[in-house]
Amino acid sequence: MKSNEPGNLLPLWNAGHKGIMIFFVILMAGFTSTEPNRRLVLYILIYVALNTMISLAADGRVHRWLICVNLLYLLGCMRYIDPQFALLLPLGLCELAALPHLSARQGVYILFALPVPALFISSPLLVFYSCAAALTVLSYLLLRRQSIRSGKQDAELERMRRELESLVLKHSTNHELLKASEYTAKLEERNRLAQEIHDGLGHAMTGALIQMEAAKLLLHSDAPKAERLLQNAIGISKQGIEEIRLTLKNNKPAPQQLGLNRLKAAVEDFGGRTGLMTSLTHEGDMERISPLHWRIIQENVTEALTNSAKYAGSSAVHVRISVLGHYVQAVVSDRGQGAPRIVKGLGLIGMEERAAALGGTVIADGHEGFTVTTLLPYGKR
Fold it and tell me: Were both Cys, which of 87, 164, 256, 319 would link to 286 (CB 3.0–4.6 Å)?
């Protein structure tokens, strides 16, 4: 069964409407009576006290009982004190229909009781009662609909908040797993290198040491054989050294791999810190780019990315590395607001100085966003 949730606005709505209706009842009593009716004022004060207790009741059961007592009190006042108390009945019935433990259908059934008091009201007051009941029910239904909609929106926001927390937790877990996998990969790589050194250089040095020990024993008794053993030890040692050289050469990453991977990591890290969408593409023979070229490219790209984040007002920035005929080209471009005239600051001047150290240049363009191009020559021209 779906709960008839009244929302937080209905109590305020009830209090405001009751205040208006009390004022209206007192006003009507004042105009229809030639003498002040002190008893009417007393009973209205009792009604106000009951409603104050309803609004302060924290226990749900006590709250429900007070609403029922309030309705019975209004019926009694309407029957024995003044028929104008009937004008307050629609508010009491709406308050009863809005109880949280009642379903929407039960609330509608309670509102069907609104025409009943009209059977006991005289015709002059019947018009006021009908208007009061119609306006009260209409405003109550509109507010209840809005409250239900707000409740659904709150529930949706809560669901989205929980999903976001779950995604953050998964991201954190995946990040920890990634760090653990990277550490495991490093351990495995260290273990593999240790095994290669043990199988190659370790065995070679052991064999050479055995040959040299044997040569030492035969040095005075059999010099030719001792010489052959020493020669074998030298050959084994050379072979072991060559194997170590090949192992280090095979495991050392190429300069272009180091430079490109470092640049990718820097661009991705910049995007994560600033919230910009970053991308990097490359074309051409990356092996032609020397470590010194990569250092200047990374410093200039980092400076250009920083300027784009500060001044461009763009949501995305792209980095492109190209190896041309005689130049290495690094382009950082965005689709921000740009500028018709480029004012050289310390950052752009520093980029030019770094490029000039290798005979290169830097070109800045402010049309259709900012574009900063670094051109560095390579090889013999």
Answer: 256
